[in-house]
Amino acid sequence: AAPVSMGTGGAGGGSGTGRAATPGSDPRSPRDQRALSGPGMFADRTVPGADVPSLWRSARGARCEAKTCQTGKISTAEAAAQSCTGRDAAVQTEQSKDDAQDFQQEVQVDYTGLLSFLQRVENTVIKELNKNWKSHAFDGFEVNWTDQDEAVLCLHTLSYPEAQDHSLQVTSVSWNATGSVVACSYGRLDDGDWSTEKSYVCTWNLDRRGLNPQHPDVVIDVPSSVMCLAFHPSQPSLIAGGLFSGELVVWDTSRTEDPVIWRTGMTDDTHTDPVYQVNWVPDTKHSNHCQLLSVSTDGKILVWRQEQEGRLAVAEGFAIVAQQVPRSTRLKKMAWGEAAVGVTSLSFSPFSPGLFVVGVEGGYSLRCSTAAQTPALPGPGSSVPLRAPAEFAFSPHAGPVYSVSCSPFHRQVLRVGHCQNLFLSCGTDGQVHLHSMLQTQPLFALQLSKKYLFCVRWSPVRPLVFAAASGEGVHLFDLARSVQKPTVSLQQSLSDSPVYCLEFNTKHTRLLAAGDAAGTVKVWQLSSDFTEQGPKEMNHLEQLASDIMD
Question: Where along the chain is composition biased (Gly residues) (predicted)?
Fold first, then answer.
């Protein structure tokens, strides 16, 4: 057989693989075609794949153990809360007729026997009832269902940091008509430029949730030092103040823009000295209305009425002059400024509306009457005639009287038109005097402190209890225990700042507010010993006054 040459990249060559010519197109002979298809030539074939078993996988699988994620079986048990013994209970109110009949039979009353019993004891019961009706064993005694307090506690320490930064002092405190709001005035009672120094009136609502003791609910800026305050007796938002300049101002704390609603302004009737006390008094000409009364060291006691455009005008006036006090306090010259006697405090009798007591700078306490018709020395520029109200002078203190307070309880009628009413006075001599309205000499004089006494107040609920403010703190007295020394003395501040003012709360009778020279107001909660009136306490007060007078 002739050899066949294979192209390896020539013009007729492919990619290195020979292919047989198709019949009819290849010029070679059939012999040559058979020679090309022999076994020694190239051809396309399908070769089965080779399979090589993995020894590594079989060895590793032999070493592996069967694993599972299933947790072990959880054992459970059933338990019940049912008690061992059961009992049925029902709330159904219906009952059968038979049961109702049995019940009625059980509660049948022997009316014949009851009538016989009542007839037998009738005379004895009536006798005892008449005896109790005539008894005065529990006069003035009121049951107190509140918890008993054994100690006096400080509930709140209130202050206004901006006033304290200017070293201002608390000059006065007052409770509003509801007893829930306490107000204080800031000013100065010691040396200082009072006339130009700015001051404040601040209020706190003690019932308010989230009370901030150093953030008052209301702050009123006042251009002059405020010397005294008084809330209106029935309108909780109205408060009157007396200024160092001699003016009177009435604020409405419910107004957010301008709280001033009435003021005296600087007129001929305005006080020429600081106003040291202001009171709301009933208007005798208009029921359910109040007027303002002011007291000043210029010797005048003025009553003011409200007029249009927010102006306060003088309705009537009084003046304490030297001619009405004992010779030891009279002044030689009769000019108005020298003849007037400075008034520092005033207290009305609760039993005689026209009767009041004043304390004066000369050390005397004077009994006065609004019905007095004696004219005082004519003052300069007064729009109303001033009357001289003093009727009686009491034994003096060794220094100016700073505070007087009439008892809200004691009134003993001696004869027609005369009654014995007790009042307290205190002053710079450190003494507290207990006086009867009808006796010159004090019933007793208690040397309480070597420092000044600035304020004294009777308790509104205990006839034998009063409080005094001194240069050493707050002193509480219970005359049922001792007439010689305080029952409790309270330290108002760590710096021993003088306490200038205090007021009992007539609505929440356990509360007592006191203001000091450090600019803080402390609200004290009194113990039940000072707030619960015991049986026959009124009799005890009358007996105490009678024994001392005898």
Answer: 7-17
- Whole-number Å distance between alpha carbons of 530 and 512: 11
Cα 386 from chain centroid (whole Å): 41
Express as a percent the part of the chain with pLDDT over 70: 72
SS3 277: strand
Core vs surface per residue 67-77: b (16+ CB within 10 A) or e? eeeeeeeeeee
Task: Name every residue whose Cβ is closer than 8 Å to that of residue 497 and which is 6 or more positions away in sequence.
Answer: 516, 517, 518
Phi (first) and psi of residue 203, to 5 degrees? -130, 145
Alpha carbons 481 and 429: distance in angstroms, whole number: 24
* pTM of the complete model: 0.70
Chain CA centroid to CA 39, Å? 124
User: Which stretches of 295-446 are DSSP H helices?
Assistant: 336-339
191/247: higher pLDDT:
247
Residue 213 in tokens? 């003791």
- Of 154, 153, 159, nearest to 213 by C-alpha is 159
Confidence of residue 1 (pLDDT cuts 50, 70, 90): very low
Instruction: Name the most confidently modeled range: 57-71, 417-431, 434-448.
Output: 434-448
Neighbours of 498 (CB within 10 A): 21
d(CA 404, CA 347) in angstroms, rounded, equals: 6
CA angle 420, 423, 427 (to 5 degrees): 150
How do beta strands 311-319 and 386-387 pair?
parallel
- Buried b vs exposed e over 87-110: b needs ≥16 C-beta within 10 Å? eeeeeeeeeeeeeeeeeeeeeeee
E-strand stretches of 320-464:
343-348, 355-360, 365-369, 386-387, 390-393, 401-406, 412-415, 418-420, 422-427, 431-436, 444-447, 453-458
| Cβ atoms < 10 Å from Cβ of 348 | 17
How many alpha carbons lie under 13 Å from residue 314 in its C-beta half-sphere? 21
- Provide the 10 A C-beta neighbour count for residue 82: 7
What is the pLDDT, as a whole number, of residue 413?
Answer: 44
Q: Fill in the DSSP letter of residue 3.
A: -
Separation of CA 53 from chain center = 97
Q: Is the dihedral of CA 263, 268, 269, 273 positive or negative?
A: positive
- Torsion angles phi and psi, residue 292, rounded to 5: -105, 140
Percent helix / strand / coil, the chain, rounded to 5? 15, 35, 50
* Closest C-alpha to 510, from 144, 68, 229: 144
